Amino acid sequence: MSIIIAPSILSCDFGNLERDFELINQSEADWFHVDVMDGVFVPNISFGFPIISALKKVAKKTIDCHIMIVNPDQYVADFAKAGVDILTVHYEACTHLHRTIGAIHEAGMKAGVALNPHTPVSVLENVIADLDLVLIMSVNPGFGGQKFIHQAIEKVKQTKELIAKSGSKAIIEVDGGVNTETGKLLVEAGAQALVAGSFVFNSADPKATISSLKQL
Predict the structure, then answer these.
(1) Catalytic residue among 30, 35, 130, 132
(2) Structure pTM?
(3) Is position 175 annotated as part of the catalytic site?
């Protein structure tokens, strides 16, 4: 399959969200990547349900939601109601991860688990068969535009091995510091979906930038 490109709307122009949503609709991108932060699990606050619901009304592509919040279980139904297609929670935020994954599926969404840079892939051994997606963080979560952590490449390889060993159908997504250079290395390592924010929206031609990532 060709690489999935998921532009992060955290890097959109907040004064022109509808314009940038439509730009993604018209581009070769596959997903809208939505980062939800609560200012507790990570040191930043971002979108809430009204923005996701507004996006759902205009989005012509999959809504891939990455939640960096404490107590994610209490909001699973709300994310489903807002129109999220893929809901990714953090391993580090879930005391009962297996139950959380089950709740996401029961709500009608695909389930993903994100790993912070310091968290080893091995923690997913007992849930990998239940996952639709593993999100490898190649920066510390909370802010866009950070420097790529190269250890993420090795973690992608480890995740690919774990998926193959378990027979899981989960795909590997990477978020943080993605550009054409790091993206190429990640795809070669086994990544199937790339999140790109500032690299896309700070470029002179976002559509062309998305196209360049799509060709990796």
Answers:
(1) 35
(2) 0.96
(3) yes
